[in-house]
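Anyone up for a design puzzle?
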């Protein structure tokens, strides 16, 4: 482990760690992981609990910023007992190498082709772009892509543990980070002290089928947003019923195909912006204001500002996207026939029009990926101390049923269920959830096991519904700092 540079903050230490590219050849080629650490204040000969590794999900999310977030928001007595350690997984900047497969300014220049094809020619454009992206990754990273897997990410975590001199580590993972944590616990059960999985990935399905489940849950969550808008028709004037607001939203989407808002927000960019509202209802007032301003006044300013702050694909987001595809396309098998993608997506679009095609387009490079998908780790073990699962009932990105299945894979797991649909529940303002998290991290106190119909250990209320309020252009960005790090 080598130190790198001066500390940006007095409490933060930065380092790099070289790990094997291929763990079957531990003395072969090495790659470099970027790490940071926020030390706890309790001494090692006191009641210190060692390292707490954190991961925001993705795959493709960097955990360096999350480490500071977690350390600042845990109760002081809990944070004092852990060294919170963030890391950028292999391929994610500033780890080296950092993947990039295209020039994002050119390839993702807005407005992009509509995610929803009107005819076969449109669909071939979308498939061609997916193939082009996959070829760009293969041309640049043929030597690296075979080793970009969740299993190797888990082995990297154990290398971090060893470099820190810890016999056991604790872990807090969100979204895809829950699957990474589950794989780590399966491979290294005796190295786990505490394990928290928040917004839980379904361990029973491959990534292609997981995305199909997402299509339905994103559509449901989008309807929640439309119903909220209808409940505030006095503010936004978009319709007094969910059906009326839905009609207005899809009419706006069709209108943007020919006349993009501000010259940049076409239907695909609209999908990107509004899909963020499925991750957190804290964005709903901003999305509502953008929607209303454009429909009633033709004012694109809030919508364009939201696109630039929340959805525009810059170099950082393209790096995350490249790693997302690299891991998911390699972890599990994907259909290689575009006819299969076409048939499944057309059928799903009739049922779940909000996300069926956008999600297919997002993942479509896996149909052409230069490395075929492998066999995933079969997660699950009874050789663990109590572990904690946290899940919102109407989560779009990781549907609730996945948490129930993960609980069955780990007999020592206890599940805390919150109402609502926010993705990434803990340390985001839900006091009930945070009490369970703190108690578990503090002394491994987990909710009692209940063997009811839903198999939960404890229940927490949903966050309060967001308040309809005026939004200005300058206030639109940065509405969801926590959720922006906990996506997909």
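Challenge accepted. My sequence:
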């Amino acid at each position: 482990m080598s130190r790198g540079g001066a500390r940006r903050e007095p409490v933060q230490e930065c380092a790099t760690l070289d790990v094997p590219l291929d763990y079957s050849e531990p003395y072969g080629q090495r790659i470099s992981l970027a790490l940071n650490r926020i030390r706890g204040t309790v001494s090692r000969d006191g009641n210190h609990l060692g390292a707490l590794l954190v991961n925001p999900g993705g795959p493709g999310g960097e955990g360096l910023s999350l480490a500071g977030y977690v350390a600042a928001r845990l109760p002081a007595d809990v944070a004092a007992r852990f060294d919170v350690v963030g890391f950028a997984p292999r391929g994610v900047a500033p780890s080296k190498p950092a993947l990039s497969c295209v020039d994002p300014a050119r390839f993702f220049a807005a407005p992009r082709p509509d995610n929803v094809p009107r005819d076969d020619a449109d669909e071939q454009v979308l498939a061609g772009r997916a193939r082009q992206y996959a070829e760009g990754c293969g041309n640049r990273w043929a030597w690296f892509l075979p080793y970009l897997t969740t299993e190797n990410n888990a082995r990297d975590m154990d290398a971090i543990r060893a470099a820190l001199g810890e016999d056991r580590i604790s872990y807090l993972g969100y979204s895809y980070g829950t699957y990474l944590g589950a794989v780590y616990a399966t491979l290294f059960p005796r190295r786990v002290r505490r394990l928290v999985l928040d917004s839980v990935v379904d361990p029973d399905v491959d990534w292609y089928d997981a995305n199909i489940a997402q299509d339905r849950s994103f559509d449901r969550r989008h309807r929640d947003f439309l119903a909220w808008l209808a409940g505030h028709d006095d503010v936004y004037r978009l319709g007094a019923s969910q059906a009326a607001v839905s009609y207005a939203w899809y009419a706006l989407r069709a209108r943007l195909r020919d006349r993009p808002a501000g010259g940049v927000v076409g239907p695909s960019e609209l999908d990107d912006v509004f899909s963020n509202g499925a991750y957190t209802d804290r964005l709903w007032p901003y999305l509502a204001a953008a929607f209303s301003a454009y429909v009633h006044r033709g004012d694109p300013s809030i919508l364009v500002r939201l696109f630039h702050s929340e959805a525009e694909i810059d170099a950082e987001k393209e790096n995350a996207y490249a790693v997302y595809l690299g891991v998911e396309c390699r972890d599990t098998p994907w259909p290689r026939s575009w006819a299969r993608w076409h048939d499944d997506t057309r059928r799903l679009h009739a049922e779940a029009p909000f996300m069926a095609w956008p999600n297919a387009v997002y993942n479509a490079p896996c149909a052409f990926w230069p490395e075929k998908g492998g066999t995933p780790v079969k997660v699950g073990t009874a050789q663990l101390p109590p572990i904690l699962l946290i899940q919102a009932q109407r989560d779009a990105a990781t549907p609730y049923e996945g948490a129930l299945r993960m609980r069955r894979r780990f007999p020592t797991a206890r599940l805390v269920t919150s109402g609502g649909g926010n993705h990434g529940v803990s340390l985001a303002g839900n006091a009930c959830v945070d009490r369970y998290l703190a108690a578990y991290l503090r002394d491994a106190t987990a909710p009692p096991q209940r063997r009811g119909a839903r198999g939960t250990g404890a229940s927490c209320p949903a966050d309060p519904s967001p308040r309809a309020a005026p939004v200005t252009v300058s206030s639109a960005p940065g509405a969801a700092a926590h959720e922006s790090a906990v996506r997909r």
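A detail worth pointing out: Strands lie at 2-3, 12-20, 30-38, 51-55, 83-88, 169-174, 192-198, 387-392, 413-418, 458-460.
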